[in-house]
Amino acid sequence: MSLAITLHLLAATTWVGGMFFAWMILRPVAVELLEPPQRLALWYRAFQRFFPWVWGAVVVLLATGLWMLFGVFGGMGGAGWHVHLMLVSGLAMMAIFLHIWFAPYPRLGKAVSAEEWPAGGRQLGQIRRLIGINLILGLATVAIASGGRFL
């Protein structure tokens, strides 16, 4: 059980922390210092490095979450409301990430390669909004996970 919790927390911290850094730190600095072509190239390259970590986090979160759900709680019936909410929010975050991965992210890469900056800007804007939603969901999930069983 302690291995599952540790891996689960590390995966969640990696994903949510990465989104927090991107939204709250990197984005304002990139807007302040870089012109749109350089900013779009920066974001695409940053996503190329971050998204494999997100894929890893998704796999670890699903595997360890289900391990704990069935191994510790004996299934959904034995889990508290906070576990149910965690599962729903986690699945929603994963669905949003999958949409980013399969839709605006590849289009951003094509736009950057073709130097089509307005099209790239639209794709980056969509990714930014979706990551913002995921960040809110992720922070809420962390709060639910850490305090839900005490309510």
From TrEMBL:
The keyword NAD does not apply. The keyword Membrane applies. It comes from the Bacteria. The chain crosses the membrane at residues 6-29, 50-73, 79-102, 130-150. One of its GO terms (cellular component) is membrane. Keywords: Membrane, Transmembrane, Transmembrane helix. Pfam families: CopD (PF05425). Residues 45-146 form the Copper resistance protein D domain. This is Putative membrane protein. It comes from Halomonas ventosae. The lineage of its organism: Bacteria, Pseudomonadati, Pseudomonadota, Gammaproteobacteria, Oceanospirillales.
